[in-house]
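ARCHIVE RECORD
Type: protein–small molecule complex
Small molecule: manganese (II) ion
Source of inputs: curated submission
Record status: active
Notes field left blank by submitter.
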Amino acid sequence: MATQSSFAEIGNALRKHQRFAILSHVRPDGDALGSQLALGLCLKQLGKEVKIWNGDGLLEKYSFLAGGSLLTEPPGQPEEFDVAIALDTATYERLGTPLKAVHSATLWINIDHHPSNPGYGDLVYIDPIAPATGQILFELIRSENLPLDSDIAENLFAAITTDTGSFQYPNTTARTFEIAAELVRCGVDVGRLSQQLYESYPRRRVELLRALLTTMRFEGGGRVASFKLSLAMAAKIGATPEDNEGLIDHLRAIKGVIVAVFFEELADGKVRVSMRSKSEAADVCAICQRFGGGGHKLAAGARVRGSLTEVESQVLEAICDVVNCHA
Ligand code: AMP
Ligand code: MN
Ligand code: MN
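STRUCTURE (tokenized, with ligand):
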């Protein structure tokens, strides 16, 4: 692992170079996209040439974010950069198709909060305690005196509120609230932003939830809850991949549930496994790493080859070993 860089080293690199590619993980969440847009807008204010790419482009539900039109899918033709920046991305491979579009970059910067991040890149800043990559970017911006206007603030707030489950998860600290307050002072309209983030879902997302709940099952006396989505179910509802972000929280919200799991059949013969834990003793990152994935102790994921039912039984078995379902 590269040694941890300082904000000063990263700040110097941002000031010194001209052409930037800002990237984040496939199947992006609010932290990935908000962080990309915040840093992209910040660098644009410094007069830099900035490309903001994600393998899945800008999701419809985040398209209202300030500067949203700057975030696109990568072009087919590779481009040259001075610096490529990976945000919120636990492994280099999870950057997806933009990797092919970055023909070359003299410097790779990796800023993230996943403990499983191996530290790829030349300048690395990983803070596994930070609840969101957006929080790290706020600290970088403040410590290096970089631009922070209301548009940048909105994106940082979106990143932090989505990755903390609206300031609820245990990694939300006093510092997180101080930063949120600072962002509100910079002009974030909390009511409007929260409505756009949490009260503007398409109706089909709730139809998807209804279908998922018919597959809900419990293991280990109710300590493990799961549901699953087949390609056929998704097609019938017309659900898009982004519709299911956050639906797993309905399982986590059940009293007595320690581990919640969501299985999603993918078109490439793999199953996307999403896991949440309510106890440090049930480390879902460790479980996902056994299946080639990663993430955080309390929120992790993996993509596992096999049929929906095969992967479901293998993964539930592995979870049951950890939470002692058989006891
Ligand atoms: P998700 O369940 O997709 O919301 O992901 C939960 C957490 O696990 C996020 O922080 C992801 O970055 C991480 N994660 C999800 N899938 C993978 C994977 N295949 N490899 C590594 N980390 C992952
Ligand atoms: Mn993320
Ligand atoms: Mn994150």
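CURATOR ANNOTATION: The two ends are 39 Å apart (CA to CA).
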